[in-house]
């Protein structure tokens, strides 16, 4: 088989890249290891930067998002038990966010692929990349017990943190930087009306977050020790802990219901540089991971795909400048979000070795943001998303 672009991984990064390339008339294929049902069963974060919203609309993917997504104008941080810092990004910058679950974006992308008849292969096993540092890379994989070979012009590695793409960049060239945080997030889904606002909480007992999926579906998180399992967290314990960490006024607005999903995820920051090697280009979690505190994971996957799709389209039209600059330009935006997510994680969580001094310093920073428009603008412009650069030059 011959394709212009082989995309390894059919998560949000890979499926979005397939969609955009197809609309530009480029023949691409996605090779996804899991089944379609498995990918659609994964629950992920749900806050979109406005740049992400506009990009999805521009590529014809905005209909359901605009129907059921919830635009949000404020970032809210509860602290010291009952204080509530509310930063109005729309008033400060004219930009807002959209709460719309990543699972629904994934559904929208697969539906768009079905409609356009694009080539998505599920249960592609043992995907291997060959000759990526030549002009004729090729891919092999197993499907239904037979080996398939695809020759191509370019390979997009969109196969997440544990994928096969990144390790094919020689270790002598790759620089991997990682920071692991000494806690996790216990996340639950509950069929109960959510708070009208998105609210983070800094509390002596640990971080908490109240988000939503729709008018009767709340998405809620509490910080927990890394070695906890979901069996340690009965529903009663979860609700007690959440209500202890958020202000009484907001707690009173949430009616506890049995949870319908419960999982624990560790927090880490990770970046692998460069994001390209020869004819291989990494995008999304394959190249970087952020802790969920800043809600940047999906947004970064989308911004990488924006840069990569523009670069590939230009390259097929004879201008390779974008591909040459892709890693440098993408990494600049990646590091902006990685730094922001690390800072917000540090500001809002209770660290195991945290002293009263550290707690006071966090609270002082929240008091400072409360009183400083400059600090609120800085928080806002990073939360709503840093601007895109032009990746392709004339
Ligand atoms: N071969 C083929 N597919 C693979 C392989 C492989 N060897 N390894 C992994 N995959 C698939 C996974 O099954 C998954 O569906 O690649 C896909 C990667 O998808 P994601 O992990 O969702 O990563 P990405 O598309 O970059 O999206 C980033 O997802 O993890 C969240 O917070 C993150 O929101 C962000 C978004
Ligand atoms: C979510 O809605 O799941 C969510 C919201 C904000 C975050 C992380 C997750 O920072």
Can you walk me through this structure?
Helix content is 36%, strand content 29%. The chain has 394 residues and is of the alpha+beta class. The strands form three sheets. Strands 1, 2, 8, 9, 10, 11, 17 and 18 form an eight-stranded mixed β-sheet that branches. It has an eight-stranded mixed β-sheet with strand order 6-5-13-14-15-12-16-19. Helix 9 packs antiparallel against helix 10 (321-348) and helix 11 (356-371) packs across helix 12 (373-383). The longest helix has 28 residues, at 321-348. 44% of the residues are buried. Residues 45-47, 209, 211, 219, 292-293, 295 line the site of P-hydroxybenzoic acid. P-hydroxybenzoic acid binds at residues 45-47, 209, 211, 219, 292-293, 295.
Care to count the β-strands?
19
Largest sheet: 8 strands, mixed
Per the principal axes of the C-alpha atoms, what is the gross shape?
A: globular
Q: Determine the number of helices (DSSP H or I, runs of at least 4 residues).
A: 12
Low-confidence stretches: none
Could you tell me which ligands this complex binds, including any ions or cofactors? Answer: adenosine-5-diphosphoribose, P-hydroxybenzoic acid
State the end-to-end CA separation: 33 Å
Helix content, binned percent: 25-40%
Average pLDDT confidence is 97
Secondary-structure-based class equals alpha+beta
Strand content: 25-35%
Q: What value does the Rg take, in angstroms? A: 21 Å
């Amino acid at each position: 088989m011959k394709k212009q672009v082989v995309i390894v991984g059919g998560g949000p990064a890979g499926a979005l890249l397939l969609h955009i390339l197809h609309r530009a008339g480029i023949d691409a294929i996605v090779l996804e290891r899991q089944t379609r049902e498995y990918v659609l069963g994964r629950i992920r974060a749900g806050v979109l930067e406005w740049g992400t919203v506009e990009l999805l609309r521009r590529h014809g993917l905005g209909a359901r998002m605009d129907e059921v997504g919830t635009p949000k104008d404020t970032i809210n941080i509860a602290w010291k038990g009952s204080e509530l810092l509310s930063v109005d990004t729309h008033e400060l910058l004219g930009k807002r966010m959209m709460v719309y679950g990543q699972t629904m974006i994934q559904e929208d992308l697969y539906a768009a692929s079905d409609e356009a008849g694009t080539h998505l292969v599920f249960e592609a096993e043992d995907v291997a990349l060959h000759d990526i540092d030549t002009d004729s890379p090729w891919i092999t994989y197993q499907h239904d017990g037979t080996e398939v070979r695809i020759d191509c012009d370019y390979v997009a590695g969109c196969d997440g943190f544990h994928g096969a793409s990144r390790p094919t960049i020689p270790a002598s060239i790759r620089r991997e930087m990682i920071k692991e945080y000494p806690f996790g997030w216990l996340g639950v889904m509950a069929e109960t009306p959510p708070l009208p606002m998105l609210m983070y909480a800094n509390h002596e007992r640990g971080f908490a977050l109240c988000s939503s999926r729709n008018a009767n579906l709340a998405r809620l998180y509490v910080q927990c020790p890394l070695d906890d399992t979901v069996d340690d967290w009965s529903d009663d314990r979860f609700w007690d802990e959440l209500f202890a960490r958020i202000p009484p006024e907001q707690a009173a607005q949430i009616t506890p219901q049995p949870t319908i999903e419960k999982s624990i995820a560790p927090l880490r920051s990770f970046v692998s540089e460069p994001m390209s090697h020869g004819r291989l280009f990494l995008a999304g979690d394959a190249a970087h991971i952020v802790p969920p505190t800043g809600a940047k994971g999906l947004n970064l996957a989308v911004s990488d795909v924006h840069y990569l799709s523009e670069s590939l389209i230009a390259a097929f039209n004879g201008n390779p400048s974008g591909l040459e600059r892709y890693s440098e330009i993408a990494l600049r935006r990646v590091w902006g979000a990685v730094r922001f997510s690390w800072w917000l994680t540090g500001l809002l969580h209770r660290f195991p070795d945290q002293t009263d001094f550290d707690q006071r310093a966090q609270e002082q920073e929240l008091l400072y943001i409360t009183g400083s428009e400059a600090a609120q603008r800085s928080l806002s412009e990073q939360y709503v998303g840093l601007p895109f650069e032009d990746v392709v030059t004339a």
